[in-house]
Specification:
By secondary structure, the protein is of the alpha+beta class. The protein contains 20 helices and 19 strands. A hairpin with a 2-residue loop joins strand 8 and strand 9. InterPro entries: GIY-YIG_endonuc, GIY-YIG_endonuc_sf, GIY-YIG_UvrC_Cho, RuvA_2-like, UVR_dom, UVR_dom_sf, UvrABC_protein_C, UvrC.
Length: 612
């Protein structure tokens, strides 16, 4: 780190020491903070352009004035330099670089293997389970929509294995014609394998081959006078043809992404249309952090380099702008993916239509984001005035508690900034070890777990801590902060108004001496209250969804799993013999012994577990 007494950085002298090799350069300020990462085909010329030019753009001049140190990494090729630059930008997040902010992993459709009745399922995260993964899809909605189609077309099960193993009668999905009932043997292994194969072919984009097979089977059923089955196959073929017409891209045999960028008022939007095997998977918008004076081509170059670092690269990228490093970028992606990658800007026909669609989508999304940002800015400014803060808050955290009569209690923490919700910072806390239904104890535990890490130097400090509740919950927050020695956080409770009417909430404040203070009633027209209510509602939604997942998981788990000696096969036999858990609980030791594989000792253990 350079002290204030150190001499100013002599950029001209430093440039004379550089070689003409390709590489990456990094600029640091006097506090040793990274300002900028760049790549060059000729380090001497590129770095020299920052220090030898008489005039520069204001943004670049402001950055150069802060440079106190330059770090150089020489690479063999310009492509290697581009790859290293992208990796450094993504991991180090320099202030003056275009930065893709995309923390979520992408969802896939998962098809299990190694069992008689495989399942299709939504999957996000590490792909380490045996089976096949189809995707990635641009959004959760796209996966859910595809899975819904799979249910209608091929009736392959999507239920959890624990639910599947413990069924004694077919579920509602079978009754409405969206599952073939493999859990209770209503379809043979061979017929089910055929449906799985058709679903797999459809996800691979081979819908024409599926249609041909189904049409042939329909003819055979018709000749055999099995008109009911022939009608079902006819409807299936008709639905597939309709989907094929809606989603198929003419001439797009390879995977393809279509990218367009729009810049306005210091913000950028990159809209991406995803196509795999000629089938549209939907679209997704990105809003990269944008330095001043960036052009759409610069944004697309950095977006592509960062986005495809850790994702499958399609064989074709259709771009709305020509890129300065287009050939180098294509070579880098090809080397990274192991297959040829084409970057196209001059396209016709269907591709031109999709490119126009991406450009319109980018413009519309950016317009909406700008309007939302202006509204948020007004709300944050008003919240500053209402709470009497020195400056608008930069980070708001809100906590809420959800449970069903004390069961499966979950606390949520959501985070909002000047640009809206920061979902990558959301957290949930499974609450344990408290009296069921004690919301104060639940809030105390959640806040302690959150702010203990802050007291230890981990995580970001919120400017405002919102608590869904009145004076009692605010007191819990103040106790936690006092015990952990955390200061400088404004604590505000959000209490429901008379009749629980929206817009009449009361804000419960804490005084500077960390005790309860007065109350505020901003009123239904207050932008500050609109912001507080939006954050509170998001915390409520996030808590409820977490609670429901935890409750459902607990209820899916059979108490028989706690009995030593009871595996999946014996558990399934018990449930089928007695028609479900209610019948097992009503059975005596002698009746339990009638089930194959259950001796007296095991029957007594089962009875003791179920009856305490």
């Amino acid at each position: 780190m350079q002290s204030s007494s150190s001499p100013a950085f002599d950029g001209k002298a430093f440039v004379q020491t550089l070689s003409s090799s390709p590489g990456v350069y990094r600029y640091f300020n006097a506090a040793d903070e990274l300002l900028y990462v760049g790549k060059a085909s000729n380090l001497k010329k590129r770095v020299g352009s920052y220090f030898l030019k008489p005039r520069m753009e204001p943004r670049i001049a402001a950055m150069v004035a802060q440079i106190a140190r330059v770090q150089i990494t020489v690479t063999r090729t310009e492509g290697e330099a581009l790859l290293l630059e992208s990796q450094l930008i993504k991991s180090l997040k320099p202030r003056y670089n275009i930065l893709l902010r995309d923390d979520k992993s992408y969802p896939y459709i998962y098809l299990s293997s190694g069992e008689d009745y495989p399942r299709l399922a939504f999957h996000r995260g590490a792909r380490n389970l045996p089976g096949r993964y189809f995707g990635p899809y641009p959004s959760t909605w796209a996966v859910r929509e595809s899975l819904s189609l799979m249910q209608k077309l091929f009736k392959v099960r999507q239920c959890e294995d624990s639910y599947f193993r413990n069924r004694s009668r077919p579920c509602l999905l079978y009754q409405i014609g969206r599952c073939s009932g493999p859990c209770v043997g209503l379809i043979g292994v061979a017929d089910y394998a055929r449906d799985v194969r058709h679903a797999e072919m459809f996800l691979e984009g081979r819908s024409s081959a599926v249609i041909d097979e189904l049409a042939e089977a329909m003819e055979q059923a018709s000749k055999a006078l099995d008109f009911e089955r022939a009608a079902r196959l006819r409807d299936q073929v008709a639905t597939l043809r309709q989907l094929q017409a809606q989603h198929h891209v003419q001439g797009a045999s390879a995977d393809m992404d279509v990218l367009a960028c729009c810049i306005e008022a210091g913000m950028a939007c990159v809209s991406v249309l995803f196509f795999r095997n000629g089938i549209s998977l939907g679209t997704r918008d990105f809003f990269p952090r944008l330095p001043l004076d960036a052009e759409p081509g610069d944004v697309l170059t950095q977006f592509i380099a960062q986005y495809y670092l850790d994702r499958p690269v399609p064989r074709e990228l259709v771009l709305g702008e020509s890129l300065a490093d287009q050939q180098i970028l294509g070579d880098m992606l090809a080397q990274h993916s192991g297959h040829p990658v084409e970057l196209k800007t001059s396209v016709r026909g269907e591709r031109a239509r999709f490119l126009q669609m991406a450009q319109r989508n980018a413009q519309a999304s950016l317009t909406g984001r700008l309007a939302s940002r202006q509204t948020l800015g007004t709300r944050f400014d008003d919240l500053q005035k209402v709470l009497g803060l020195d400056e608008p808050p930069r980070r708001i955290e809100c906590f809420d508690i959800s449970h069903t009569m004390g069961e499966a209690t979950v606390a949520s923490c959501v985070v909002f900034g000047p640009e809206g919700p920061e979902k990558s910072h959301y957290r949930r806390f499974n609450i344990t070890g408290i009296t069921p239904g004690d919301d104060y104890a639940a809030m105390y535990q959640a806040l302690t777990r959150r702010f203990r890490k802050l007291a230890e130097g981990e995580g970001a400090r919120p400017d405002i801590l919102l608590i869904d509740g009145g004076g009692g919950q605010v007191a819990q927050a103040l106790d936690v902060l006092d015990e952990l020695g955390v200061s400088g956080i404004v604590v505000v409770g959000v209490a429901k108004g008379p009749g629980r009417r929206a817009g009449e909430e009361t804000l419960v404040l804490a005084r500077n001496d960390r005790t309860l203070g007065g109350e505020l009633h901003p009123g239904s027209s207050s932008p500050a209250l609109h912001l507080v209510a939006a954050v509170r509602d998001e915390a409520h939604r996030f808590a409820i969804s977490g609670h429901r997942k935890r409750r459902e998981k607990a209820r899916e788990r059979s108490v028989l799993e706690d009995v030593p000696g009871i595996g999946a096969r014996r558990r399934s036999a018990l449930l089928k013999t007695f028609g479900g858990m209610q019948g097992v609980e009503a059975a005596g030791v002698e009746e339990l012994m009638q089930v194959k594989g259950i001796d007296r000792g095991l029957a007594e253990r089962i009875y003791a577990t179920l009856h305490g």
